[in-house]
Amino acid sequence: MHFLERETSCLRRLKKLRRKKAEGMALTMTNKSSKAPVCEHCTSDLSFREGKGEAFFQSIFEHANAGMNTITIDGRYVQINPAFCRYLGYTREELRHLTVYDLTHSEDQSATRTHFAQIKAGLRQAFDYEKRFLRKDGSVVWGHVTSAWLFDEEHNPLYGIGLVQDITDRKRAEADLLRALSETRLAKDKIDGILRSLGEGLIVIDNRQCIVLMSASAEKLLGVACEQVVGRPLDALFSRRPLPPRLHEALVKGENGDQCEIELEGCPGTGRRIIQARISWIAEGGANTSGRIAVLQDVTAEREISRLKTEFINTAAHELRTPLTSIQGFSEILLIQPGLKRGERRKVYQIIHEQSEILAKLVHDLLDLSHIETGAGFRLKKTSCSPRELLDQAIRHVPRDKGRHRIEVRFPAESLEIHADPGKLRQALENILSNAVKFSPEGGIIQVDAYRRGTDLRFAVTDEGIGMNEEQVGKIFDKFFRADTSNSAVGGIGLGMNIVKEIVEAHGGRVWVNSTPGCGTTVHLSLPIGIQCVTGRDYVFGPGWGNGEVAP
């Protein structure tokens, strides 16, 4: 560009000098002979400029490796050097019949016309920009165009001297680089999408034991943000506590497919969590590896279920053995002592019958659990039935010791029939009442209230037992849950309330619990009402457990 500008300036001054000479003006080489001083390069040898200088310029023009041309303001080529012909694949004669716009790519037409318009308007004397040219064979090449222009006295453009450098290879390299960057960005987005969608935590480390990637699930499990640990050593995962030795050993020295479990402190209120880590190597080719992948899974719930199942098996075995032992022992008495008196024999029969009922209930609960676990649920045989009668039956079937508890029942004046499975609904009421009896102190009152709320009939069973804290209330409907697991705890295998929930929900109702430690528990049932109204009254089941007495 510097060369073109210098040549253009010199040629402009020489033309002015020739015009003055032709008009008879004295040619002087002082500052007074011209408003603009003429450089020494221009005035040192005019003949050289007019003769050898032009030959020298023409030699450069013809032998330059870059394309050169002179062009008019309307875009027609005047002179074209061989390099420019080779660049576009045209002959000089063919190019003289074409304009700059004929050789310009459609997407670069606007920029080209703008530059020429600015030259024509006198807004600029030169320009340079990058554009695409159309070769004779139809291919597209990129060029960096530099153009300097000569103007007459009225500042009208005469012609421009252009230099075109082939930058096609550079543009292709840039396009390849942009494509590679785009593909890399796309691959990164895909990896980020995979990491976000993974349910399990994932950590990738390199051979320096620095973290390379971490999924959103891993962030949640470990309580640390990805941007805080990527590129940092493993210990950054546990900035507030040391890296568990088992996990460190597995990540650094573990074999492909190794597993380990670690315990971590959870968020406040969640307690400790058990995390299982599975290690995989990142193969690099041959026996070399470039790092390791750790897949993290929170197995706290699974381990808790496993613990509960083990506890359930032990409890169930104990609960089954107790009535079986009684039945076996008292039936043996009948066999070895045939001479028992009638009253004693009846008492033994009564004990065997009661123990067999307990055993049957345990078996029924296990069968119900089996139906629930397999997804079969309950097969309800619905019919119109009286909730009062169902409650009476449930109270009579609740195991108890005479004189220990008092059950008070209050029905509304308007009692309704409901469409339900009598057997299953009675079972739910028995389970609730049985728990109330088990956990109530001797002489405690168990209050049963029935009332109408909108389109529902509701029961509320309140005891004066040991009560439960908030955590226990949240687990009361879980399988195998027992509020009291001490050695002196009351019997049961922890299925009763879970079965209650399944039965009530199968009827389209709902069940919930309110409890305060040391103040007792209230279990609420809500069931769709029936269609038939009957008159009811309050009554009490006392020590006799079978005689209805009017409540005071």
Question: Could you explain how this protein is built, in words?
Answer:
With 552 residues, this protein is an alpha+beta fold. Helices cover 42% and strands 25% of the residues. It contains 16 helices and 21 strands. The strands form five sheets. Strands 17-18-16-15-12-20-21 form a seven-stranded mixed sheet, with helices on one face. Strands 2-1-5-4-3 form a five-stranded antiparallel sheet, sandwiched between helices. A five-stranded antiparallel sheet has the order 7-6-10-9-8, with helices on both faces. Strand 6 and strand 7 form a beta hairpin. Helix 11 packs antiparallel against helix 12 and helix 13 packs across helix 14. The chain starts with a helix and ends with a strand. 23% of the residues are buried. The C terminus is likely disordered.
From the spread of the alpha carbons, the general shape counts as elongated
Strand order of the largest sheet: 17-18-16-15-12-20-21
* Total number of helices: 16
The mean pLDDT is 77
> What Rg, in angstroms, do the CA atoms define?
49 Å
What is the structure about, briefly put?
The chain is of the alpha+beta class. The chain is built from 16 helices and 21 strands. The chain is elongated and about 150 Å long.
